[in-house]
Amino acid sequence: MTVIAIVGTSAGFIFAADGRLAPIEFNAPEELLALGNDHQQKIFEIADPQKSLAYAITGSVIDPDGGFDLRAVVRSQIDRMSHRRFDDCRQYLRALGSKINEGINSAKQNEAIVEFPCINHVEQSPAWKFAKIIVAGYFGKMRCFFQVQFFHYDGKSSEFAVDQYLNLIFLSGSSAVKREMYQSNDLPVVGSMFSEYTKLLGDNPTLEDAEQYAVGYVRACCSPLALELDPRCKAMGGHIHVAEITSAGLKWRIPPATRE
Fold first, then answer.
1. Distance CA 60, CA 77 (A)
2. Is the pTM of this model over 0.85?
3. Which of 232, 59, 79 is closest to 147 using CA atoms?
């Protein structure tokens, strides 16, 4: 489980994430949960003369049985494509997503992925989403906010899709905590049990406002109070790290405990 919060403003984006990597189910015994660690970096940069982007990955990242690590595949393909030029961010992400998807399917054929997980079922479809890469920042001077989703139909092969994210707020973690904090219009819930973590952004939020909003959600999901609402929050926690991404690049506001 991972908590990721991304908030866009006219000046750039704020990324916030927890630091916990739990390689087993959230409802496992405490001694097994302790095999994970609380110092994982979950926010990463894509930087070259053409683009200034940041990304985070949600969903199934590691297959502990086969040894597959999606983070390594993503980073490898980003580095390999760093010298290629593209017309826009969508074209770049389609090319990147295709290469990552090839890596996923190769890992499945070689049994580095034992079984594709079924995490989020697509309504009115037999498809299951199992991983998502959220990318935000700047392609040239153009602001970008996209998601690259990976899914399967039959458990035999992976497919992917690239979609523009239209809302400037992305919160991934505990949906129960999110519902208790914010309404569908992103305004704080009046009388929320997480009121100390909520933030009213207003019409023209600054990067500082965005940081308070994003960090507040991550802290709420990692709080003891969250466990009363959602037992999955046991797998969320650790060192919170925060980055801003502007056309000038990525700048750490709270650095990760260990950088990759």
1. 18
2. yes
3. 59
